[in-house]
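Following up on my earlier thread - several people asked me to post the actual chain instead of describing it. Fair enough. Here it is, all 602 residues.
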Amino acid sequence: MSKLNEIQNKIHELNGGEFQKMMDVYFSKIINGEVYSIGSVIGNNNTKTGTPDTLIKTVENKYIFIEYTVQKSNLYKKFEDDLEKCLDKSKTNIPINEIEKIICCCTGRLSTEEISKLTTKVSSYNIRLELLTIDSISFKIFDFPSIASDFLNITLDTEQILDIDDFVKAYNRGKLATTLNTALYARESEIDLIIESINRSQITILSGKPGVGKTRLALECLRRYKENNLEYEIKCLRNNGQNLYSDLKLHFSNPGKYLLFIDDVNQLTQLNLILDYLGLEEEGIDFRLIVSVREYAERKILEKISKLNNHLIKIDILQDKDIETLCKEEYDIKNHLYIERICKISKGNARLAIMACETAIRENTLESIANVTELVEEYYKGIKKDFESELENSGLLRTAAIYSFLTVVNLKDDENLILMAQLANLEKNDFLRMTEKLHSMEILDIYEGEVAKVSDQILSTYIFYLAIFDKNLLKYSELIGIYFPKLKNRIIENLNGVFSYYYQKENYELIKEEIIKVYHDLKEKSDDKLEDFLYTFWFALEVETLVYIQEDIDQLSKEEDNQINYDISKQNSNTSETLSTLSNFSQTEYYNESLELIMNYL
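Reply from S.P.:
Thanks for posting it. Predicted structure:
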């Protein structure tokens, strides 16, 4: 059975209230205006008498009337009566000249003759009539997978490509996620730059530190861009690790203009699938991207898209006066002591400021927002209590930390699940039981029983901190020993995320000690991963990395036929990696040594 047939069958099963609610959501997505569900009962799926069943007031101050029915027979008579009521000002209190359109929706079919006669009844009033039967409605719902999922329980895609409002709902649904519903403060100049960039670039990149407000800023730009570019279909990608191919095909295969926002593009492993859509102009597809990327991953993303028309915009932290405005206007915090403390610990980071405001309101004590570490502890204290209240809390926390480390896990990959279970010191069945427990605690999201992911980014970082640094339940050396270099990029992402919120000398030294353990093991085995390991973890092995590169240079100088091209763009990847690693030493005490090695290498 095709998905279209399945949609039609499910629509036939809806009662009047369910049908109206589904279609009201649909119209709210395609019509720019205020929706009033006059004939719908709040809180349940019953209906009540009203004319029209739904009223939409457009931004042009015109009115759209919508009538619904799930009758299986006498549809013509039903709509004929509905039209008479809609055209009766005594029943609607709206003058006929202010009615722009009347839409009649049904779960049955009308004949050609019936459609013609109904259209004639309103033509003399200069009012457009739209008649939507089961056929046209099913086609329309097919284009909105989230509606098919919510109202018909039909899965059309992996629910990763969403409308703006659905993206915000999905984001805010995460347990203790920092809300995206706050107003935007002090970003007007950035908004102008971003909208200008969207107009002239294929890809607009928003780069900044974690928590500066890139996601919220991007969403504001999408909404404003849509206001002046109604022909563009605006979508947001919320990555859950599932394959994107069918989603992209469903949403972007038809000729049209599309703008897609990708949040944290540095965590997306299927970027190339999306970039392919940038070259389909000849097929009538105008496809543009706006992406957010964490500052530390900016260079790698720029390398991936270097041949495409892109524009990088740096998003800076907020100033203290902006944080103060957020405290006062968004959270009604007026006490100057609280505001000063929030400004001090957030250091311009919008996400930390929101977390601090919400914690301060909930706890009503200055001590609850003493510093960043204690703030995050306080914000997630309920989660910590959940772990501590479980009899098997150490196994549960270890399991959660491993999921946090890996970000996205394929639950069909038995080989990896066995490795994860071993790391958690559990049998595979016990590990899967812990996985289900984390899902029931709303810590872990599981998509169609195939992919698992911690529900919130900062929650993921906190769980990892709790297990590795606070409770010492997992050895970092064991994690990187198993997953390096296969998941090298993910390991780097994880470290940057942890140190964004928990950079303390003792935490750094613990990680460094664990990295050194793995290094010595690789060196003892003369493992061919040693070079890659040094280039990745150079910050913990500064002297060892410089010595290794020096020895490499000495070896190169002995090879008479070896010539290094001075045109760096033409050098091999190994050369680029070596020079890139040496450039990392520019802010360290080994700057002079690294500079000398660069000169020798070239």
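Residues 566-571 have pLDDT under 50 and may be disordered. That should answer part of your original question.
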